[in-house]
Amino acid sequence: MMAEQLRRGAVAPLSGRLRSGLGLLPFILFAVAFMLLPAGSLLIGGFQDPAGHFTLDNIYRLARPDIMGSYLLTVQISLVTALGGGVLGFLLAYGITLGGLPRFVQGFITTFCGVASNFAGVPLAFAFISTLGRVGMITVLLRTLFGINLYDRGFNLYSFWGLSLTYLFFQIPLMVLIITPALEGMKKQWREAAESLGASAFQYWRMVALPVLAPTLLASFILLFGNAFGAYATAYALTGGLLNITPILIGAQIRGDVLHDPNLGYALALGMVILMALLILAYSWLQKTYSRWLQ
User: Fold this and answer.
1) Is 22 among the domain residues?
2) Alpha carbons 189 and 184: distance in angstroms, whole number
3) What residue ranges are annotated as transmembrane (predicted)?
4) 10 Å Cβ neighbour count for 229?
């Protein structure tokens, strides 16, 4: 009798864990179908020739000047927009959470950031062309009312800085959404304690607030970097392929009529995955370093 009760007691927790695990099944299937299988396809395709034979030629070709230049350009755009979006987004989030803005203004800005962070691709490119293109609304107004021609002064929407400006439209709101909960979690008692000990506002942020926020800031930077690093539709619709960034080059290799070489495209995508993996490893190392420092 006692053995039977023990057996039932052991089976009940096991069945409960199985039922709880069923809730993870959709996520596991989604991760396998849209993450693991595509990553495996890139890994296999990057080491194959068009006939399906094993080769290292695709990896060797990644060292070509045009391909290395595309990686460098993509990294530069990602760094600029991640840093710019991170700093401006942090300041905006600070104004929302700690700046004493009216509640309805906070709600409006937060709602706008939720929409703007997902506004990308062809609609975003068209919006910037209509606004800051050569015949865009702001360009024409400045030229008509003030005699200022942006394009005669060196501005070009279809260049590195023009694309970076376009990316900031969704990078800044994304940073606001990420960092706002962390700022809201900052306790007022920490600042009051620092001020009672004679610390200035600069000392509080340098010695208390920023160390606490450092892991979130690093994670936000990586997310913004990856968000810009893999962007394709916005850049292609805005520049028409004039900028040789890696996602456009991958699209040209996989879907193009002239540069059609899918296996090289797989190798290019694999290189992007490796770069992001190295960045995530660097973040993990920095986070551990900060954790030991805080202790």
Assistant:
1) no
2) 13
3) 21-47, 67-96, 108-129, 160-183, 204-225, 231-252, 264-286
4) 23
75 Cα distance to chain centroid: 12
**What pLDDT sits at residue 20?**
66
Q: Is the dihedral of CA 227, 233, 239, 245 positive or negative?
A: positive
Does residue 3 fall inside a structural domain? no
| Alpha carbon separation from 178 to 68, 73, 155, 165, 186 (Å, rounded) | 32, 26, 31, 20, 14
Residue 13 placed within a domain: no
Whether pTM > 0.90 for this model: the answer is no
55: exposed, middle or buried (C-beta count within 10 Å: 0-12, 13-18, 19+)?
middle
Distance in angstroms (rounded) separating the CA atoms of residues 238 and 232:
10
CATH code where residue 165 lies: 1.10.3720.10
Residue 157: which domain range? 54-294
- The confidence score (pLDDT) of residue 74 equals 94
- pLDDT for 186: 84
Which residues pair with residue 123 across a beta bridge? none
Q: How far is CA 72 from the centre of its chain?
A: 17
**CA proximity to 127, closest of 80, 169, 92:** 169
**How many domains is the chain partitioned into structurally?**
1
Mean pLDDT per 10-residue segment, the chain (295 residues)? 50 60 79 82 85 88 90 94 95 86 83 89 92 91 90 90 94 93 85 86 87 86 90 89 87 75 88 85 74 58
User: Which string of b and e fits 57-73 if b means at least 16 CB within 10 Å?
Assistant: ebeeeeeeeebeebbeb
Residue 23 lies in a domain: no
